[in-house]
Amino acid sequence: MYDKNALIDVIRQKALQFGDFTLASGKKATFYLDCRRATLDPQGANLIAAGILEILGDQIPNAIGGMAIGADPITAAVVTLAGQRQLPLYGFIVRKEAKTHGTGKSVEGPVAPGMTAIIVEDTVTTGGSSLRAIEQAEAFGLKVQGVIAVIDRLEGGAEAFARAGYTLRSLLTVRDLGIEPAV
Description:
This protein is an alpha/beta fold. The protein has one domain (4-177): Rossmann fold, CATH 3.40.50. It is 36% helix and 27% strand. The protein has 6 helices and 8 strands, in the order H-E-E-H-H-E-H-E-E-E-H-E-H-E. The chain has a 6-stranded mixed β-sheet with strand order 5-4-3-6-7-8, sandwiched between helices. The longest helix has 15 residues, at 42-56. The radius of gyration is 16 Å and the shape is globular. The relative contact order is 0.16.
């Protein structure tokens, strides 16, 4: 069962750091969310998976996944919990670069063109990483229905997804952590 307050506690205790940081988007920030410290934590992984399945409700896609490496533990946790609940949800990984050996795939996992998919992300700032994941997933043939993030920094990601025709849903925003977004 999803417990938003318990997830807030895990994020505050394990993933939230204050200082001077440069984010993947290139933006400067006074706080950093190292969400792998929550997504790879047993309690955090369970809370995140339960929260994502709650957001999906009875609208379960065929597959869930996102850009390696941030989405990988989220995908694994959600697929594991879905399996325990007898839900037919497959996971996939979008490589940052296609393999140069073997099959040369940029999307890995038990997925096939035509399947519906949700992209997952740990932290969304501008949405750039997930937009790249969407592009590669759709080039593979998946029908992306939207994005679910653990945390939205409220710095333009939702608007970027909306411009591209997708909806961003998140378990938390920085405001849930008592932080006002950068302007």
